[in-house]
Design goal:
The structure holds two protein chains of two kinds. By secondary structure, chain A is of the alpha/beta class. Chain A has a single domain, classed as Transcription Regulator spoIIAA (2-Layer Sandwich). Chain A has four helices and five strands. In chain A, helix 3 links the parallel strand 4 and strand 5. In chain A, helix 1 runs parallel beside helix 2. The longest helix of chain A has 15 residues. Chain A is globular. Chain B is of the alpha+beta class. Chain B is built from four helices and five strands, in the order H-E-H-H-E-E-H-E-E. The chains are: A alpha/beta, B alpha+beta.
Chain lengths: ~110, ~150
């Protein structure tokens, strides 16, 4: 799993490459702990190169969202494959997360 | 086949059975799913079905390793799987005390949705066509029509 951040205006876009699962979730969580410590207010995670997500990955994303909400930070998820998006729908996490089809739309939708 | 138990049909097609054990370490979750998926290569299943099977195998093996065997490396998790026609069946067994699978909170409910756990079993129930636990709760049997 690789993870990198790029600034797009005032939005920090996180690109994850690989899998978001029990093996990689601790590393993702650790990286985002820094983001939340810095109180980044606008963050998008681009899933275009994410091939697999499991329940540990979902739980980690929930934790990241929860942490960001404590200081009013906004998190959007973009470019999810239909299969991975379906996991959010099955678990009703699509009601919790702001899921946007394309990264550009996610960036422009930050108020 | 209606009301088919994974174990029942595995017994009916012993030539397709495969059994293996993994130690209770996180790194063996992936190894277990890889081994099962390797056994399905010849079936040329579509990517969506393979994703579902991988996810359910990993969630079940994870629960067995983490919650069942408490990450005790000395305790094995036993996996038995097979295909009979259009049915894929798999049984995952740990050495733990089991759990009350009927009392797993629904992770989609508002009061639980921010919680960390509970989604593994929920996803298994959703993605597999038949799911059963033994009374003790240390063996899960799953069937998916492929």
């Amino acid at each position: 799993m690789k993870l990198k951040f790029e600034n797009r205006g005032d939005v920090s876009v996180c690109y994850i490459e690989g899998e978001v699962d029990i093996n990689t979730a601790p590393s993702i969580k650790k990286t985002f702990d820094k983001i939340t410590r810095e109180k980044s207010s606008k963050v998008a995670i681009n899933f275009k190169d994410v091939s697999y997500v499991d329940s540990s990955g979902l739980a980690t994303l929930v934790e990241i969202l929860k942490n960001m909400r404590t200081y009013g930070g906004k998190l959007k998820l973009t470019n999810l494959s239909p299969k991975i998006k379906s996991l959010f729908e099955i678990t009703k996490l699509d009601k919790l997360f702001d899921i946007v089809s394309q990264e550009e739309d996610a960036i422009s939708s930050f108020a | 086949m209606k009301n088919l138990e994974a174990s029942a049909f595995l017994k009916n097609d012993e030539s397709m059975d495969a059994t293996f054990e993994v130690p209770s370490e996180i790194r063996y979750i992936r190894k277990a799913s890889e081994r099962v998926l390797k056994g399905l290569v010849r079936r040329r299943l579509n990517a969506s079905v393979l994703f579902d099977i991988r996810l359910c195998v990993e969630e079940a093996v994870r629960n067995a390793i983490v919650h069942g065997n408490g990450l005790d490396k000395r305790l094995p998790v036993k996996v038995t799987y097979g295909i009979d026609g259009k049915r894929f069946g798999i049984t995952v067994e740990d050495k733990g005390r089991g759990f009350n699978y009927k009392r797993v909170p629904d992770p989609t409910k508002e009061k639980n949705i921010w919680r960390g756990g509970g989604r593994g079993v929920y996803l298994i129930n959703y993605l597999m066509d038949r799911v059963e636990f033994n009374d003790k709760g240390n063996v899960i049997k799953m069937v998916k029509y492929i």
